[in-house]
Amino acid sequence: MADKTIFKRIIDGEIPAEVVYEDNLCMAFRDVNPQAPVHILLIPKKEIASLNDLTDEDTPLLGHLYAVVRRLAKELGLESGYRLVTNCGSDGGQTVYHLHFHILGGRPLSWSPG
Ligand code: 5GP
């Protein structure tokens, strides 16, 4: 079996994280290398390597994740907006192969990505 990803190790409580939200389906915690005043990673507890590995059965899970994004945006004071990012694959800049959403905010964000 492949090695656990760092995010699976966080889910399993093997390494610490600053958790801001958790339920039976997902978990959100602060990014260790924040790119904005608010930089949260939202992950499903189900091991899905990337966006490309989602299947039709994950559609309800995705709806739930978006609902949690809205809830967190409110709780974290991101009334003036935020950015939701999922890097996919090597060209997309993905470094951890456990599906995750970056929630970035707390300052005006420039465009475009590097
Ligand atoms: P990706 O590059 O795959 O889109 O995003 C991975 C993110 O995970 C990066 O922003 C990186 O800073 C974050 N990260 C990597 N290792 C850890 C860790 O051990 N703890 C936390 N909280 N974030 C991590």
Structure characterization notes:
By secondary structure, this protein is α+β, with helices and mostly antiparallel strands. It has a single domain (6-103), classed as HIT family, subunit A, CATH 3.30.428.10. The chain is 24% helix and 22% strand. It has a five-stranded antiparallel beta sheet, with helices on one face. The model has no long low-confidence stretch (mean pLDDT 97). The structure holds guanosine-5'-monophosphate (5GP). The site of guanosine-5'-monophosphate has 13 residues, from strand 2.
The number of E-state strands comes to: 5
Compute the CA-based radius of gyration: 14 Å
CATH fold assignment: HIT family, subunit A
The end-to-end span amounts to 34 Å
CATH class value: Alpha Beta
Mean pLDDT level: 97
CATH architecture: 2-Layer Sandwich
The total number of structural domains is: 1
Shape by Cα distribution: globular
Share of residues in helices: 10-25%
> Strand sequence of the main sheet, in spatial order?
1-2-3-5-4
Judged by helices, strands and strand pairing, the structural class is alpha+beta
Extract low-pLDDT stretches.
none
Strand content: 15-25%
Report the major sheet: 5 strands, antiparallel
**CATH homologous superfamily?**
HIT-like
Query: What pattern of helices and strands is seen along the backbone?
Result: HEEEHEHE
Listed once per kind, the bound small molecules are: guanosine-5'-monophosphate
* Helix count, DSSP H or I runs of 4 or more residues: 3
